[in-house]
Amino acid sequence: MQFTKGHGTGNDFVLLPDPDGQLDLTPGLVAALCDRRRGIGADGVLRVVRAAKHPDGAGQAGEAEWFMDYWNADGSFAEMCGNGSRVFVRYLVDNGLVTPTGEALPVATRAGVVRALIEGDTVAVEMRRPRLYDDSTATLGGRTLPGTAVDVGNPHLVCVLPADLELGALDLTTAPGFDPAVFPAGVNVEFIVAGEPVDGVDEHTLMRVYERGSAETLSCGTGACAVAAVALRDAGRGTGVVAVDVPGGRVTVTVTEDSCWLSGPALLVATGEVDLGALLAAA
């Protein structure tokens, strides 16, 4: 099987070209590909398939030619991935599957069609405006931390840390606890603190995230959008620009009245072939 490896601020993916939807992609195969010791290693898998050739994308084929079939590292599905969509668009352009025209490129996802713009190493993707819809809590290290539930096409819980907790000291080797009544399908949990002022943006936030189905990751695009929306709300703003620093770098989130733009680097770093027999035998 041919593959490409790419990442957006350290949030890394295995991309599989399957334009006609012929690949028998299973949870076991996805988990084996993402295994960092026995496989290629990644936070998730992005299958590159034409929207018309995938049952989850066929309804969007009139708007977008390509469907981002995203899988978490544990082999489960995810509705949306902000960094993944940026890396996906980078793959489409670099492999000649779409031609940049200066206008936003549409991509079908399980959360609907998103649109992306490319400028050098930077890819910006327009997604739905984050929706803050409930208060909830996360449990970590014996502490219960208040948070805000946010819908960005997938579920998030954003927790602002109290002054006595350091962001870098959090133990995210195990999943934070959460209320399954609020998040019946699981949730990505973000922990944040305010950063120093940054020129050119309205707010600056530092973030770590435990992603549903992938554990702690170096970055989470939809998580950054959720965090930006909470930071703006807490600052008394409905819209604005937020710099979000994650362990893998910095992304910029622009929340408008009706959408949300996520911008940052998206790079392809390797291509190759993987022996499926050997991969699955080692899993």
TrEMBL record:
The active site is at residues 81, 220. GO terms for cellular component: cytosol. This is Diaminopimelate epimerase. Keywords: Amino-acid biosynthesis, Cytoplasm, Isomerase, Lysine biosynthesis. The keyword Cytoplasm applies. Its EC number is 5.1.1.7. Substrate binds at residues 11, 72, 82-83, 154, 188, 211-212, 221-222. InterPro entries: DAP_epimerase_AS, DAP_epimerase_DapF. Coiled coil: none annotated. Catalyzes the stereoinversion of LL-2,6-diaminopimelate (L,L-DAP) to meso-diaminopimelate (meso-DAP), a precursor of L-lysine and an essential component of the bacterial peptidoglycan. Belongs to the diaminopimelate epimerase family. One of its GO terms (biological process) is lysine biosynthetic process via diaminopimelate. PROSITE patterns: DAP_EPIMERASE. It holds the Pfam family DAP_epimerase. One of its GO terms (molecular function) is diaminopimelate epimerase activity. Pathway: Amino-acid biosynthesis; L-lysine biosynthesis via DAP pathway; DL-2,6-diaminopimelate from LL-2,6-diaminopimelate: step 1/1. Homodimer. It is found in: Cytoplasm. The keyword ATP-binding does not apply. It catalyses: (2S,6S)-2,6-diaminopimelate = meso-2,6-diaminopimelate. It comes from the Bacteria. The record marks 156, 211 as: Could be important to modulate the pK values of the two catalytic cysteine residues.
